Amino acid sequence: MSNHDDEESMKEVLDHCEKVIEEVEEGKRSSTTAQDDLRDCIAKMEDLTRRVSQLCLFSDNEMYDELPTASLPYFLLPCYLAMATNALIVDRSEMIKYKEMSKAYFHDFLERLSNYDVIGFVLPWVAKRMSDEAEIRPAREPPAADRRLIKQKRYEQEAAMKEARENFRYQLQKNNGDDNALRSLMVVTLRLYAHKAMDTLNYLDEEINMLEYMSKLKSGEEQPLPKIKSKLPTFIIAKSAEQKKVFGLGYPAIPTVTVDEWYDGMVKSGRFAQPTANRVVGAPEECEQSEDEDAGDDDEKRAKLQRWDEYKDDHRRGWGNMHNKG
């Protein structure tokens, strides 16, 4: 078999596996056959990875713009392996192992893109590894506000890359065999998958942490966090001290308090504000004026009450309603 035929065969395998993975992710492939198809693709892509290595398609001293266009699609091999491995349904006891395998494939994919200058953003685990080797304190994680801005910028970049990819596909359909359009399409596809890989890695880390915690719980290495609840005591509120005595006799096991005692307790616990908390204290002159006004108001009220009492003595109840009373 010639090298050209070999390359055609390799490209067919890669395209087939790409289609299977995309259909599984989008739910277009039957669930009964999806797992077998994924395992078959993983085996084929592992073999394809060995063939790429034997053919030396990538050189360590080159950048991506120096590589032939036909070699660029094979950058996606570790990414597809990561996606297929992550989509496998496995026994709970093996879930951590498969998540770690998927994570390792994503790391390999992103580090290759970084080494060949396809992507320019910093890979956190690489930065940590380099700082550990150089015994340098790693940079602090950016605050939440900065992380939101970074995430928003990444979404905007992904949207722009998706649009660019569709444009390059359209150009390629119009001019079949246009190497520039094909090359641009491959580069933007690699960068788009790099962004997806970073997002998936965040979810993988969370899943692995949760699975490890559940495993420790099951083995007894970790104890579940106790649920602390503030116990609310049962009590009866009586209107007066006399009722308190009665309820106390009837329900000796339940504490009984009067309304005043209950209110004072709520004030002391801070649940109610102090009675004087919202009172506005005026100047001494205003206080004196207020006291004089209150005294005048009291005299007027007493006079009104006295006139009302005299009126009731002279006019008994019902005296004015004489209709139909004989």
UniProtKB/TrEMBL annotation:
Cellular component GO terms held in the UniProt record: cytosol
Comp. bias intervals (Acidic residues): 285-298
Region (Disordered) residue spans: 278-326
A GO BP entry: regulation of signal transduction
Biased composition (Basic and acidic residues): 299-317
InterPro entries associated with the record: TAP42/TAP46-like_sf, TAP46-like
Pfam families: TAP42
GO MF term list: protein phosphatase 2A binding
Protein name: TAP42-like family protein
UniProt source species: Steinernema carpocapsae (Entomopathogenic nematode)
